[in-house]
Design a protein that fits this description.
- With about 110 residues, the chain is mainly alpha-helical.
- The protein contains six helices and no strands.
Length: about 110
């Protein structure tokens, strides 16, 4: 399957972890993210907050991009990351802010 037809999970893990790829594509993004209980915008905000709080920078870039695509503005993400500095820790928020800057100024 050409890269443009593959999901991000398929691109990252391919044949290495096919069950994790299936769960990511079918359950996480196919069901959880599709649930109508929260908008995709709100899910993105919650996910970014969780990733910053847990210091998961390897996942953060793609979710910051997704948050922007799901309707959060750069200014809203800056405000959220600033707020998180007091709850998640200054280093986590500063790291996330530099990643957001790189993404939005690229």
């Amino acid at each position: 399957m050409p890269d443009q037809e593959q999901t991000r999970a398929q691109q990252l893990l391919g044949d290495t972890a096919p069950e994790l790829v299936r769960l990511t594509d079918d359950v996480l993004f196919g069901r959880v993210w599709a649930d109508q209980g929260l908008s995709r915008r709100d899910r993105s905000l919650v996910t970014v907050a969780a990733l910053v709080t847990l210091y998961r920078p390897e996942q953060l870039d793609s979710h910051l991009r997704l948050a922007l695509a799901n309707g959060l503005s750069k200014d809203e993400l800056v405000a959220a990351l600033t707020h998180l500095a007091f709850y998640a820790g200054w280093p986590s928020a500063m790291s996330a802010m530099t990643r957001l800057k790189a993404i939005t100024e690229a």
